Amino acid sequence: MLGSECKKVLSEGHEVIAPSKNEMDITSWDGVINNLQKISPDVVLNCAAFTDVDGSEKEDLLVRKINIEGPRNLAQCSARYNCKFFHISSNYVFDGQKTIPQPYFEDDSLSPLSAYGKSKLESEIAVRENSPNYVIVRTACLYGINGKNFVKAIISHAVHKKTDVLKLADDQIGSPTWAYRLALQIRQILNFGGIGTYHATAEGYCSPFEYAGFIVEKLGLEARLEPCKLKDLARPAKRPANSLMENRLLKKQAINVMVDWKEDMNTFLDTFGEQLIKEAEA
Ligand SMILES: NC(=O)c1ccc[n+]([C@@H]2O[C@H](COP(=O)([O-])OP(=O)(O)OC[C@H]3O[C@@H](n4cnc5c(N)ncnc54)[C@H](OP(=O)(O)O)[C@@H]3O)[C@@H](O)[C@H]2O)c1
Q1: CATH classification of 2-281 is 3.50.50.60, yes or no?
Q2: Quick one: average pLDDT of 224-243?
Q3: How many angstroms separate the alpha carbon of residue 269 from the centre of ligand 1?
Q4: Which run of H or E residues covers position 157?
Q5: Coil, strand or helix: which one is 177?
């Protein structure tokens, strides 16, 4: 989802080489070092990860390999060839216990609730330890035209199961963030010469119940959405109740390009809504 947007956005003004998993498996040290030697990049941006949050609970070894060993390989190889290294992390490194709507800051203590969150925390440590010239971008609740995401899941539900009740938490909050917008933000950090750990999410927030309602209403779909509490949703991985993050460093450095989530969601659904409905119907 994010990789394809970064490839598009960063290609304006940069030469981008975006190897697929077949061309470069990040869990293979040899694969990574050979690619970096061959490509000789100035910057390495890691958008690869194991992103199935519930699946991570029963795939511990694989998750650790892709989400920790992978970034460690990339960070070490980037350091060896003096490349700047960008890595993407997640709000799941926080426990979400802050009183809503208090946001998390870049230097708040990390306390993940899930196997996925723990792997992202350890990925951050691996990057800081191995790459002197690193950027970690923590984001949350991504959606976009490619990859699996909440927007597509809601459209699919409305298309195929409109008579079934869909229960969504109304006591959990986050900031739906367009992957395309995040790619613009990553380009901004790159061009600015940023370094360190940044939070980059949309402004404003909503619960999954409000988020789904917004999508259904905007697209004129029918769906039976019902509010429930986060604790009532029996899912393998625990989720943070509060996923709000403040883009404090971006704002301090005057490079924040993130906008209100509703503004981007309106643009996204105006642009891709019909296409997504047709894809769901097919
Ligand atoms: N999605 C969100 O809501 C969210 C929120 C916060 C942070 N993030 C972070 O943002 C980043 C991008 O997420 P995303 O949602 O764009 O992910 P995504 O759509 O799931 O894409 C991840 C990509 O990584 C590839 N990959 C998996 N294992 C690999 C390996 N060993 N070597 C090379 N490539 C491999 C996958 O290929 P295959 O599909 O072929 O396996 C897939 O193309 C990740 O670091 C994620 O943790 C995402």
Answers
A1: no
A2: 95
A3: 23
A4: helix 150-160
A5: strand
